[in-house]
Amino acid sequence: MKRTSAAASSTLTMPLVCLTRVRKSFPLPDGAPLVAVNDVSLAIAAGTAIALTGPSGSGKSTLLHLIGAIEQSDSGTIDVDGQEVTGLSGRALAAYRRRVGFVFQRFHLLPTLTALDNVMAPLIPFRTDFDKVARARELLAMVGLADRAAALPSRLSGGQQQRVAIARALISQPALLLADEPTGNLDSQNGTAIVDLLLRLRDEQGTTLIMATHDTGIAARCDRAVQMRDGCLTSLDR
Ligand code: ADP
Ligand code: MG
């Protein structure tokens, strides 16, 4: 295990995420459903970084979407920090989504908002119990962009945009961060810096990280790597 902080190690023994026989299929035009995630069971310890590897189309994104409640599974259970995710709706669903950070391959920043406003975008507008601007500035500083708070995404490099996206994912202080090929649109130098940043969150804040990646070098830097193929987990750990 590659960790240094007491904060991370104190939570190590408990699984934060527990998937049991999770299944998700999509209807195809010809009628036969495509099984994107097939009977996946997996427990992920709190404070660890796990890489989800496997070829394109193997179900990595779908699995992340199910854990993040962006999509609903057909069957099985998804327990995150003691809460069953499948079937959440309304306020409970919105509250859950705020507790989980999501980082995408294509950054998905809002093009008309500054870096600072993008970071604050997930917050409930009327929430006044903390200083949002101060927190957003703190996060931009943490990702090395203190001086770019007023910049629009179009004025930022890909690596900088992904840093803003990571700051945005952290605004609600999530215990779980889901990252879907976060370095897929970056050159290797910027990609390495993004992975450094994500692993620093694990070390310093005990954030649990689930990261889909094609990159074996990145997978090797995580605590665990599991592989998917045709919707199934084909190997539990390297
Ligand atoms: P990966 O992220 O590993 O590339 P995905 O989870 O994106 O894999 O896709 C797994 C399979 O599910 C693929 O065959 C893909 O075409 C299919 N799929 C994913 N999302 C949808 C969708 N919304 N509708 C139909 N098929 C989908
Ligand atoms: Mg994908």
UniProtKB/TrEMBL annotation:
SMART domains: AAA
One cellular-component annotation, GO: membrane protein complex
Source organism, top-level taxon: Bacteria
Coiled-coil region(s): none
Transmembrane segments: none
Gene Ontology molecular-function annotations: ATP binding; ATP hydrolysis activity; transmembrane transporter activity
InterPro entries per the UniProt record, alphabetical: AAA+_ATPase (IPR003593), ABC_transporter-like_ATP-bd (IPR003439), ABC_transporter-like_CS (IPR017871), ABC_transpr_LolD-like (IPR015854), MacB-like_ATP-bd (IPR017911), P-loop_NTPase (IPR027417)
Keywords associated with the record: ATP-binding, Nucleotide-binding, Transport
Keyword Iron annotated: no
Domain ABC transporter: 17-238
PANTHER family found in the cross-reference section: IMPORT ATP-BINDING PROTEIN, TRANSPORTER, PUTATIVE-RELATED
Record's protein name: Putative ABC transport system ATP-binding protein
